[in-house]
Amino acid sequence: MCYNSKVSLTTFIFGCILAIIIYNLTIEYRPLIIILLSFTSMQFLEFLAWTYYNNIEINRLLSKIGLFIIFIQMFLMQFLLLEGKLKKLSLIIFAFVAILFIIIQLPKINFKMKRGENKHLIWYWPSKYRDWETDRK
Questions:
Q1: CB-count burial class (<10 Å; 0-12, 13-18, 19+) for 25
Q2: Fewer CB atoms near the end CB (10 Å): N or C, the chain?
Q3: Residue 129 · residue 66 · CB < 8 Å
């Protein structure tokens, strides 16, 4: 997690350039390129979050998209990196946990974020942050 919009955008651009270089150098690592781009997309989301930090509605939307990206990343790592029975079992467990999360936890989430003491964004959807009050109104 980056501590301002410039660093987030720079990290996003660097990740995209790296993905292009890897793509052009080899054909064997295409699944890793997809995973790299999924992580890089989070940096672009953080760039937007820093850019629109004081806009509560955009902040909430970006927080929802961020949680969705995290789920996509978990799915992609299992789908692209695992094989055989382990892959199938892992995806079944992931689907089960994701469904439970959507049913039980998702309705309780306060989709927002704030700047932490270390200057990084703090997302409220991890349960340990769920009950915090924001210092922004």
A1: exposed
A2: C
A3: no
Q: What single DSSP character describes residue 133?
A: P
Span 33-45, pLDDT tens digits = 888 899 999 999 9
User: Can you tell me the distance from the alpha carbon of 108 to that of 98, in angstroms, rounded to the nearest whole number?
Assistant: 15
Give, in degrees to the nearest 5, the angle at Cα 107 between 105 and 113: 85
pLDDT of 130 reads: 45
Q: Residue holding tokens 């064997």?
A: 28
HSE at residue 77, side-chain half, CA atoms within 13 A, is: 9
Burial 95-130 (b: 16+ CB within 10 A, else e): eeeeeeeeeeeeeebebbbbeeeeeebbbbbeeebe
Q: pTM of the full predicted structure?
A: 0.80
> Nearest to residue 75, comparing CAs of 96, 105, 47?
96
Closest CA to 62 of 86, 45, 44: 45
Report the alpha-carbon angle 20-25-27, nearest 5: 95
